[in-house]
Amino acid sequence: MRAELTVEATDGAARVGRLRLARGTVATPLFMPVATRGTVRAVPTHDVEAIGDAAGPVPPVEVLLANTYHLMLRPGADAVAALGGLHRWCGWDRPMLTDSGGYQVFSLEPKVTDEGAAFRSTYDGSAHLLTPELAVEIQEQLGADVQMVLDVCPPLPSSDHVVRAAVERTAAWAARALAARRRVEDQSLFGIVQGGVDVSLRREAAERTVELGFDGYALGGLSVGERRDEMLPAIDAAVALLPTDQPRYLMGVGDPLSIIEAVSRGIDMFDCVLPTRLARHGTLLTDAGRLNITRAEFIRSEEPISATCPCPTCARYPRGYLRHLVSVDEQSAATLCSLHNLTWMSGYIGRIRAAVRSGTLRALRDDVAEVWSGSDPGGARV
Fold this sequence. Notes:
By secondary structure, this protein is an alpha/beta fold. Helices cover about 40% and strands about 20% of the residues.
């Protein structure tokens, strides 16, 4: 199914639009919380669903991302399919995206050959070979609205030879994925552009990926060790060659400054574990930057995290109580802090959309840079 993007407003290269997927049309730009094993860690699906309001300043979360690598190992794609597919299994009736396991090619260092990626399970040590065809088969069983091709994501910095090899292998695997797909009517297949921070190689990879003809396009292999000033030219090089009527997805990038910089370059979709990973360690996202709730100064604080935040955590609990929960390693601390961070991120995306519509994105970008310029692109999807 071709993922069609209708652009409703622009500000330079930035755009706001509506993306049509199998289970509905969603607003862009969008941020996908990471539900690695079928759930956002520490946050029940119904609580994620309750975030935001389409008519308010905090838009709802409309798309979740799940991890193919983990779900193929436990409980197994066949088990998910037997229980009605990914949406019914995890109780989420809005669109979903599954990554291919390509990030694990980067993070777990399996043996990669032209055939695929050979690895041992992080759960029981069993041997597996993930091929482009198997990645498609598994994702078709899971049944997300969007599936990703299997790619090779080299760490940065890497030698020219390693980055070139990743581009070549990703292109070959992408063609095999297209040939293997069967579920066309209700599932979109996105291609992935590699190329590291080499601008000419990014252009070449983008051209080759577009020539294959996918339902949408992603930029992979970024936020894996490079600086932001190295990442942004690579984004520019690739986006210039991607179709304007299809979505552009920057994988694994979630810090606020990198998001707004990428939106200003024409990116529509993001995912990252950053909001929930920070939350589990007591770090909260605010308009003034990161707030470490474990600091001693908050032990008697009656203030909420943010007086203007509509999340249930800010509406009910003072900083002093949250600090206590985190300090005693209470499980509910991860849930309450994650709910706040996800709500903040949704509100931030809403502010970006509004700025694009009003033609004030540059001013918002400058404000964000004052607060977040010291943060790194901090990616990952596990």
